[in-house]
Design a protein that fits this description.
There is one protein chain. Helix 1 crosses helix 2. Among the domains are: 190 residues, Rossmann fold, CATH 3.40.50; 85 residues, Beta Barrel (Elongation Factor Tu (Ef-tu), domain 3); 111 residues, Elongation Factor Tu (Ef-tu), domain 3 (Beta Barrel), CATH 2.40.30.10. The two termini are 62 Å apart. The chain is of the alpha+beta class. The protein is globular and about 110 Å long. Strand 4 and strand 5 form a beta hairpin. Its main location: cytoplasm. This is Tr-type G domain-containing protein. GO terms for molecular function: GTP binding; GTPase activity. Keywords: Cytoplasm, GTP-binding, Nucleotide-binding. It comes from Heterosigma akashiwo (Chromophytic alga).
Amino acid sequence: MSDEKKSTGALNPNASSFSFNPNASGFKPSFAPPPPNMPPPPRATFAPQPVSIGATPPPPAQSAPQPVSIGATPPPPAKSAPQPVSIGAAPPAPAPSAPKPVDLSQPMAAVNISDNANEPEEEIDENDPLWKVTLQLAGGDRAAALKLLEDPDALMSRPEVVAVLGSGDLEVTEGGDSWEEAAAPAAAATPEAAAEEAKSPPPAPAGDGDEEKLDPAEEARLAAEEAAAEMANAIEADPRQHLNIVFIGHVDAGKSTLSGQILYCTDFVDRRTIEKYEREAKERNRESWFLAFIMDTNEEERQKGKTVEVGRAHFESENKRYTILDAPGHKSYVPNMISGAAQADVGILVISARKGEFETGFEKGGQTREHALLAKTLGVIKLIVVINKMDDPTVEWDQGRFEECVTKLRPFLRTCGYAVKRDVLFIPISGLTGANIKDEVGADVCPWWRPMVEAGDALTSQATLLGALDSLDVDSHRDPAAPFVMSVLDRYHERGTIVLGKVDQGTVSAGQRVLVMPTRQRAEVQGVWINDDPVMGAKPGENVKLKMNVGMDEVHKGFVLTDAQRPVVHAVTSFVVQLALVETLPERPLWTAGYPCMLHSHTVEVECVCTELICVVDKKTGKKRRLPHATKGSMLECRLEVEQSICVETFKRLPSLGRFTLRDSGKEQGITIGIGKILKIDLPKKK
């Protein structure tokens, strides 16, 4: 108890004064033992002390008020204690701290016996429940009530008092300096509870607003118990197929607006929320951006009108479950876009049909090309190209504009590695009005779209975006029977370490033993969650949270979890790759040994260097030539090296860990240098 805290309702027999607090939360009488070698304090009284006539007083206790003696010489006063009053004898010279002699012509009730004679007697709170019941027991006699308060043990024997104490209206507080302030809080009312509490270790001190600090072993035990309790209520995971969708494309193409419209169309955002965002967008002079506010949640994104981080949201259809990954379109945030695309199964490439905007995004320097290229190399299986803003006054659902965009995009997507006829769909939409997202655009607005769908000219049999998503099948690329592998996307602490990621292959369940790579730390999965729901297990393609018995410093983004019984992941520092060189810096136009860059693979991002240019491959004949350098547009094989071990595998063995992108951050905003796959990993030599 702080020295500065004023007594506010303490019933403390050792306190210099007391008051009653009717608003206190609870009261439990407690008499904690004093420290060793310290005598117990004398019993204090809560009423004026009686005057003793003609009797010799006993030696006074230190710091206690002394009774008044008539006809006797008082003993020397104790330090700082009130001195006894002597009648009929000359009083000694008064000490500075001694009280003045008592005037016996005044009634005895007027005598103020306290630590400070000049301090007024503290008033009793007439509304205090304990005072009320005590006064009632005394028949309204205040003096008798005060007398009752002098004996807490006697009070506790009265059922009326016990009833008041049990109602939780009183609180014990300490006033002044005493050894009790350093003691434990009030003990339980029963001796058994007090004895049990005495056995318990005192809690560790916590800072202001901090959680109580626990011993690491104790915290691990509690985390395991908590996970086990939650897993007891675990359910079977939803059997519907789950897809991660990443929205990619040039800045201002309408990705966030489209994401918000999908959530609204599927009833995952209500009308009241939409109206709130409409007001906020109007206040910022961005009336048409209100749907984007659903995904762009931070202040910087709303102020600038552009996505910075990868937004994440969920929606469902009758057949599938979806997670939206809204990637930033600005070239300054390409690394963030890569982080989102690395988790995706399906890419939605958003193209603006507005005059001038398509050309800006698709021509050299725009992000349409780079995003499409990155999505393919990062593992996007299917691509839906939506030609957005078809309702714009410069377009007005013009069929010619739609076909112009499609004609320019098809050959480019082939060069990125997409099988256009099999894996790419084209759909005209309006993200702002919702046309062709859930409901097909009316024939009066767009008479040419339905005949085109029926003829298959747009490479789709589905007229709407949600219909096209439901028609996709990616399960053929997933293997639930394979050894478990999951790239770590993030981790945080919540009664243990929580690890986030997407299951690449295999399954994971509570109790499963795993290896944390590249450190080879063994760990146990204590719980599995999908969308914050505890589940018995998770299949490939699921975004999961795993509670694990490892420390926060033992797992990081870019690490990989694999089955401890069937480990399939290696930790290496060098590997041989096949690289398609798509761009080089003007100041560094040749790719040679010693070329440094940034490597992006699954969730890892690390600096690397080319240590050997093995050969340049002729794209037409496949013939390999040994050359000292390569230029933009070349296909080559080289060896890359990193300083510390990372988890990668050959593309043939584990595609999710065998793809990569190389970027050069030498320029202010960086460029993509090349994309490729890993052909061979250089395993460390056994000692």
